[in-house]
## 1
Amino acid sequence: MNCFMLVDCNNFYVSCERVFNPALEGKPTIVLSNNDGCVVARSNEVKELGILRGTPLFKCEDLVKKHQINVFSSNYTLYADMSGRVMNILEQFTPQLEIYSIDEAFLSIAGLEGEALVHYGQNIKQTVERWTGIPVTVGIGTSKTLAKIAAKIAKGKSGICSLVAHPQIDEILTNFAVADIWGIGSQYTARLKRYGIHNAKQLRDAPDRWVKKQLTIMGLRTVRELRGIPCFPLEEIPPPRKGIVSSRSFGQPVTELGELREAVASYAARAGEKLRAQGSIAGYLTVFVSTNPYQEHHSQYANAASLCLPMATANTRELISYATKLLESIYKSGYIYKKAGVVLNEIRPESNPQLSLFIPPEPWQQNRKLTQLMDGINARWGRDTIHYGAQGINQRWQLRRDYLSRRYTTRWDELPEVKI
DNA sequence: TCTGGGGTCCTAGGACCC
DNA sequence: TCTGGGGTCCTAGGACCC
């Protein structure tokens, strides 16, 4: 029989920091979102203090001081590299692997049952922990949704749980809150509550037609998965993105068009990198800007402008040029801007570009060579080693990252030091 | 009194995930 | 002073067509 195994890294960002700073072990620790805005990862000690994911830092500063919580800015370079290491290990156990997020993967396991299945999961868990230092939780079920539930149950216990052919499945689902089911968010939880559905067993046993009406076809799939019928298959090859967004809030408020231009050019460059990384070109580009909606006493402005490109492209120089024009069409002086972004849509494979009748192909080929050269340099020496002048030099609008740790695994000059 | 029926396509908005 | 970023999918409703 085939079943799904979810391997989930515990408090992933915090665990990454702890690998290289063992003094943090057992100490309350948090990692912040971009711009040091919100809490996005918490150690168990912090979860116990009642600090919720998504809490703005300034709203929990008292608790941070009182409990001497260790604070880190997001060190995405480090986390992405550690994630790659974890996934490489999982791949050695089975090629049937779906990397679901930076800290989670689904594995398809065939031909194992009962004790042998759990033993296999334990082996995976121990190997990842020994080789990377990242603690993981393993959940096993006959559908992805059940594997997710198993992982939640395993957390805080032995770290592994299998619901496959479990004799007390009804009891387990009765004790499992509907809000904790994968695919049931706060809105659906509230709606289900109004109909007296509070736990996973009640939802599993609800009639199909009613579920579809209330929660759409996706909700019905979730319910079927609760019954052990897989409806979400393993996606070993990630489908190419349909939209690519690159946006950031600014470390400092921005008012001048010049600075906004630099930021938007930088986001366009990032979007271009992502586009090329998946071998695509984009035909539709959107630029948006907005002031800080939380600053209610300031005058607010948000706007977006889009453009259907004359010819689909993945070329940074073109993207920057179009994005800048769009920005100029929506920029209004007199506002304090907090955020801007670039969105790419109508994404298709680079292999079959629709050549334009009116644009000769030669400059296009040249641009391509230049882009490949720049990507090569940046891949070798680090992001933005070489970049367009339009992206600016000082970049005052850059992220705030006051509590950043080192990029221990990807920079020679930031290697961990060992004192004897 | 009473004004059709059946399609397609697109977009905005809402729900979810990490 | 201070509130992240990047995705997915589905549905309802409007525009438009014959």
## 2
Amino acid sequence: MADTGNNDKVKQILQTVMAVPEGSVATYGQIADLAGLPGRARLAGRSLRADFNGEPVPWHRILRADGKIAFPPGSEKAKEQRELLMAEGIMVKDNRVKLRNCQWQPDMATILFTLKY
DNA sequence: GATGTGACTTTGT
DNA sequence: CACAAAGCCACAT
């Protein structure tokens, strides 16, 4: 039962997301890049939609490139994400976060850590 | 297997 | 700010 080969990439994405510290956020593209999968922002989104199997994946810290929550404003998911973000002290204005202030900037050690594997 | 969709991004109108 | 186009690719029809 050889795996599809894609499963590894998904795990890679999730592992990278788990490296995002509380109080910070990242974009789908940023996660994909750090995971060694440039141009795969969509895969990042799909990976987060999947089942985490109990892993503590902070999916709520992942936003679109413009800082907006990737769910329709007013939707339950959007509300949930906003609550989780605010619970970490992140300001959310109209379904949007100020990346300039909250975007995660991984240190070299973390970059090497996530990029490897 | 072609087509459409989507938790995306970037560049250009 | 909104929209279009192109790039990306897994998945559903």
## 3
Amino acid sequence: MELLGNKLVRIISNTGEKLKRLSGIIVETEAYGFKDDAASHAFRGQTPRNAVMFGEAGRAYIYFIYGNHFCVNVSARPFEIEAGAVLIRALQPVEGIKCMKIFRKNSEELSLTSGPGKIGQALCIQKSLNGQDMTDRKSHIHIEVGVKPPGMIATQRIGTSKALDKKWRFVSLAKSKKGYVTNKFSSRS
DNA sequence: TCGATGATTGAG
DNA sequence: TCAATCATCGAA
């Protein structure tokens, strides 16, 4: 996927002190489409929550799930009419690791951002970031272009029971071996 | 309005 | 294997 290897950057301004910069290399993503994709939030049409998926590409789509977790997406539309987004599932932490550990309550580096909800915690993601332009380096959450990893593989998606035939989960093979990505490769039948 | 549910995580 | 936990959505 296009996003793999790029850097997700989160800038936080707390207590009026200098801006803190948290970032990580994107090592795992999942794509979600429109009406042909039953697992997508956009499947049933546009709602206030998924409006970003129908808007301009390159925006942040932040949503709250399971009562506890924030997930980060980048809106993307493969073709004019469609809606869609790419869920960022895992990062390799780069900047502000110490800070992330605080947000994540002192966990190990490998498990800091190895899951969608964990990224939400580690990067202090809030709903107010929804709709931010992620192509603008001034945004408090944005993408910086990096180097594409050599080995990328596509697998079945995780965490949803719908449209399992679509192999739209993309991971960087090298990073997955190091343990930076979610480790549920086999789903229970 | 009300009830079901989910692109998850962490503990048991 | 299972509970936590709540915003969102669709049906009533």
